[in-house]
């Protein structure tokens, strides 16, 4: 993984304070996935969000400005995974899902919505732990993207 | 896309009968996404499922055997998308989601479950149309995979 | 280039009738670029648009249904250029523009709009011939895409 | 992104002085896009342009020579985006536009101009913010390149 | 190979103490292959396993914490081999086995088990030295993975 | 997959006679994996082995010569999997095993044998079904290759 | 090489009439290299040039129209070499020249002309045979491209 | 570009002394292109050539030995351009010339010389500025390589 | 492998007449390796060599012309191996030799000859079977290429 | 090239003592090619060989241990050439030989030996200078690898 110094600093602070992304998310009022995306340099935050984040992480006042400059900026996204297809087995399963179920999803979306796409920008993502069954735990992932119809002109 | 003659025959029958994947799924008792995966050669069906599918699609008795041979076999999966990253904008958004939110998802999953992966085999996927808001339609995708912890030995 | 039989049939009819994309566009009430995109399998048309297109191209009634089935469907987009970077010098210049001016454009867009993207779906594109100068002709390309701000959740 | 120390120094000065590319462009008498291209190492400047740029950015006299040496030189262009297709969603949309609308643009250009290309060297590019509609902002991009006909010999 | 400082430190300690992976494995109560995977950053260990490992390797108390932080974390797996196919002849033979015997193995597994896969997560691997024959030594590799049947839904 | 007509003919005969690779292997006196490799064009057979194979598959005398010509020849091996890393999830797990456990295996082999490789030519491979546990089936793969020490000269 | 039927037809006619590219070039009034480029689908010809070409090649009147349609069209250029770097040793030397002498040429061009490029569109290329030395023949290649200075705006 | 410290030192000396490659070439008695190739690490020089080069560049006696060691050695050639196809527009035009005119050149060379290649080792290259026309400057490139016929044995 | 119809025809004739490359080579007066290269489309033959080859292979007079046209032409070389690195284990060993011993060979050649290369055009290659040892057979490959010193100019 | 500090240290000592690989080889009792392979990190040496090598290179006693640790270890082989196909013209000729003569060699080897490969591990390689002809020097390369027949099981 291709991780910046800013990300390393924030992750270390998170580890030192023994915080989960869930706890940070609650403190800021944002989803844990979005918080992880922010810390990994895949999203940008408002000044207020920056302050709350740095406070709960216990970053000293004197060091906050340099963090805010990075967190506040529109980042160059998508560069975390330096090899593709990803070599990490967990990440590789998402690639496999796309290979196997990508075209079926495309067909179902067109059948339900017409010609267009699911936005990956006006988009939210949740990860949930399903422990309802005795002998298995399930990872549930909920994606929600605005449907964008193709414009004609 | 790299589509077999079997898939073409089934898609043509579906179009001639003006059926949706949803309707076929209900007739077979399976999800519309799984049905699309089956028709696109990404899953295998039991004899009973094959018969129900071919019946609702109106495939004549005489032609069913050759379809069943293919639908019943364990396919070579994942070859539908011949260029990668996918050039189709709808499919490309799933690639983008992986690039931007892949590592955040990995971290959240490890935080909630420990070292392991979400299975893409003991796995289900739903596509839903959310029309609850007046000014936008949303594509909701629900993935559910069994958590597989890494074995030590 | 990777061209389907449908595209070949429509291009041959266009050539036989000696029509420009501009003329076809006017007859249908759509931009010439969108018409070219439709004929090259990169867009989908309404039934009415299909009928107008096939009429002006002089496709006989008997052959129209098979054309409409393809033109009406949501296509698998983006597969025309089979080698990338494109080997054709005209297409290669667009690749070069992205390499040289891509990051500057990104920075300017963020400076003017904040964190988000220019949509390539809610999007229009025009090609104009500028002959205002005596000793040179210029190709002017006008792109217009909706700004999509990144959602936080 | 692959950014040199010169670029980093200029971007930091720009941030410290809280200047936009637009403001710098006006001070130098050049377009904001060209100024961004210059700062990102994709263009070369005259001595006069260098001086104006360094002055408005507040670079001290003593440090200017080393900046001028770089800004004045013909750079090795096009190396900013180190992964291709670009992983950043905003940049990726330009790639997508080329995949979907590239061949249609090629056909329209040939129809209007004959055999040749749009120059990417005798070329200008503008980014405009269209706020004429109440419920959407649009990114407008205007490219203008000299048409170069293929020479026969 | 792409080796972290943690891995280098552990390998140096192993060399200084003249320990084999087999000896370390016995001390910890784990297989030598799993121990090698752990040291090379491909697995994560419990606190107890970490302590035992660092003790047998003679890592001083004061340095243990930073090792434990890394060994305890769920790593980003699969990044050791930076060129693929691997250039190292020993590793390349595994690639060759996959090319030549991969599809035959797939067919045999489906014949014996039905549609599904061999897990690489609920998985163990042993390397044995077979010296039963006078004129040759053989490398025996024993892989065992849980069969995961494809879920239908 | 990239399958020749010879392979298709043999697979069809196998299916028509409802034979498993195991049954064919027993009839010929060879392992089922080697038989699958032969049928998939990854190995060459003696005249006697060819005759036995064609007999059990019920290939008529008149058609045997053209099969023997192919089965008897030293094939161009390794071309079955046309995309790499393999897109099929079952095959992809072998790739993943190499990424995660490849370097650990290399280190263990060197520790046990010294500098050299496991041959993939003087090599055997078995696939076994382990049903000894009530709640899981396991795929066991046993590879055995001659150790080849690096020659010095 | 990736050769169209049009190219094959023209090359066969050239061979049947035992003509060199040089002889064809003289008959048309164009360089032999341009003629070869035209026949290989890398250039477009005027109606008059088409007629002269087809006449000297002895293409019968009845077959000319279909040739003219292709020769007259602006082709999709650059797709002849399907593998890159080229596997053919003669072509590979041009790739090698670029690797070894490309940057030196770039520096010399900038030193002589300033920031800009040599056009490959307003461009001519000659191949000459130098037999002035007794013990060697030399291939001389003369390229001439218009210098295009980078526009500022 | 991938430039060594030796190259950087020589280029800096060249800039400090305000020398062109042409001037250095004259002083050494070699072509400016060869001199640029030498400085960029693509050629090796005799001791005498090294001394002349270092003298005209004003490298102090004490530093000359380390330069001579590098300039005198047979270098690993061809590694300057780290991305291929080259992203720099000037270099990219040479790639484009190969794509469009490579096969025509091959055919012309075979027609004039028979089966063989133009050497890129027994090879010279000149860059000339043609200002004979009022309204355009042209870059002329003259390559000359020994013809090497294919040996039969 | 990417084999033309000409090659297939010649190989079939060779098999039907039960000839080895060695026998054909003796009949023509050329090395067996060169003969194999010719038949696989990697070399060109004189008219006399063509006649001798077709005679010994028993190609009927009426079919010879079309073979001669191909065998006599300068072929597009190097396209036999369609995947690279080669998937075939025998071919892959040559790739491995280059990876492991390529740089050592380069250094030894420079040490013995100075700056230059071994020609692959003024080049011969032999394959010999060494059976001098009781318990092993060895493949001996003898390559001989003219040394080409780098020209200075 | 990707060269370790160990290799750099040994090459510098070799240059300082003005030794050829041939001289070192004689002193150690090994071939010059193997010595070069060892120094470039592609082979491993016995303790005695290490001592002899370090002695003739004049490495001081105090520094020998760290060299021995590396030279004695089984290295990760094949990583010297970081770009493939190799950009260096001398190395590239070996790649070209494989492309042009690889399949002919495969066929000749199978004709002489049957189904199997030439080992690249039980393998030796010599480079010789042939000066027997007045007007040319030739590079002769002699490879000898054990033939390994494919095992059946």
From TrEMBL, chains A, B, C, D, E, F, G, H, I, J:
InterPro entries: Cro/C1-type_HTH (IPR001387), Cyanase (IPR008076), Cyanate_lyase_C (IPR003712), Cyanate_lyase_C_sf (IPR036581), CYNS_N (IPR048564), Lambda_DNA-bd_dom_sf (IPR010982)
Keyword Nucleotide-binding tagged: no
Substrates-to-products reaction catalysed: cyanate + hydrogencarbonate + 3 H(+) = NH4(+) + 2 CO2
GO molecular function term, any single one: DNA binding
Keywords: Lyase
Origin: domain of life: Eukaryota
Catalytic site positions: 93, 96, 119
EC number(s) per entry: 4.2.1.104
Keyword set includes Lyase: yes
Pfam family, one: CYNS_N
Occurrences of domain Cyanate lyase C-terminal (ranges): 80-153
Role played: Catalyzes the reaction of cyanate with bicarbonate to produce ammonia and carbon dioxide.
Alphabetized NCBIfam families for the sequence: cynS, PRK02866.1
Family assignment from sequence similarity: Belongs to the cyanase family.
HAMAP family: Cyanate_hydrat (MF_00535)
Name this polypeptide is given: Cyanate hydratase
Organism: Didymodactylos carnosus
Species lineage: Eukaryota, Metazoa, Spiralia, Gnathifera, Rotifera
């Amino acid at each position: 993984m291709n991780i910046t110094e800013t990300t390393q600093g924030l992750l270390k602070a998170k580890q030192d304070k023994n915080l989960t992304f869930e706890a940070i998310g609650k403190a800021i009022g944002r989803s844990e996935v979005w918080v992880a995306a922010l810390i990994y340099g895949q999203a940008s935050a408002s000044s207020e969000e920056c302050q709350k984040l740095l406070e709960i992480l216990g970053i000293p006042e004197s060091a906050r400005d340099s963090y805010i400059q990075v967190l506040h900026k529109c980042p160059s996204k998508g560069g975390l995974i330096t090899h593709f297809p990803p070599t990490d087995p967990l990440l590789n399963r998402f690639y496999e899902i796309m290979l196997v179920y990508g075209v079926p999803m495309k067909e179902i979306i067109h059948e339900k919505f017409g010609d267009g796409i699911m936005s990956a920008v006006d988009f939210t993502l949740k990860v949930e732990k399903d422990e309802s069954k005795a002998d298995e735990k399930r990872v549930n992932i909920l994606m929600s993207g605005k449907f964008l119809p193709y414009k004609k002109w």
